[in-house]
Predict the 3D structure of the following.
Amino acid sequence: MPPRAPSVADLTPNAAAVAKFRERRFGLFVHWGLYAAAARGEWVRHVERTTDDDYQQYSDNFDPDLYDPQSWADQAANEGMRYSVITTKHHDGFCLYDSALQQSEAHIRHCGTDHARCGRQLAGCRR
């Protein structure tokens, strides 16, 4: 049986979650992906009408070697940030994880094992 896509109820925040978000007020939003390698803005694929084959080079070579989630979390905390959000799937089709819901033929191939990368971000924030 294929995985079920989230319903509206799954995505609707409860009152306690909304109250916690409002109380924390200031946080870090991490949004990076393949478009960073192109270095022409996050809408580069759309604006330049890049094909899947041409855009795939960025996925094949995606290696954020300077990624240091503990440092990012420490800096965020030092600035008074009280939460962190990381975008794991982008409008260009790039994913930082494997997913059975991903339409692999219609989207740029994922980064595969980046569950570990996202997990390091979570661990850095929890310390």
Notes: The beta strands are 28-30, 84-86. Residues 26-126 form one domain. Residues 104-108 have pLDDT under 50 and may be disordered. The chain has one domain: 26-126.
